[in-house]
Amino acid sequence: MLPNNSLFTSTTQVLLRACRPALVVDPILYVPATRAERSLLVGWRLGWLPGKPEDCPCGRDRRSRRHFLECDLIPSFLWSDLPRCPPGSYPIDFALSSLPLGRSARCPPWWSSLLLMLWHIQRLCRPDSFYAIDSSPGASWYSRSSRHPD
User: Fold this and answer.
1) Measured in whole angstroms, how far is the alpha carbon of residue 39 from the centre of its chain?
2) What span, in angstroms and rounded, lies between the C-alpha atoms of 122 and 149?
3) What number of helices (H) and strands (E) belong to the chain?
């Protein structure tokens, strides 16, 4: 654990609150993922997504973490697929912090929903770019998990 764990719960700094509570190598760096998937994960973790607060293509608000919770352009079922997070936590950050630490850990059931949600967010944040969507996001980890049953 980090020396002052209350820092994470008391800070208003969004990126600091998104950190893992323990000082370890973040699993987003080694879980089975394609380059595009890992880019989404790292981009979110480093705060590159959502980027500058500009108008969202939905026309209701500016792009922000708060706005994405209610943006009509992100399928709502994706949010409900993520693990239930405690009050004051952001669902994507909580899901990333809930990833298993072991390199041989099984894939969580919400993994593809998380990746698909990050893809939607990236599309909203960079509407002038083309981002191909994998037909089955997270397949590399799912297939590896099915080959190594518990």
Assistant:
1) 11
2) 33
3) 8, 0
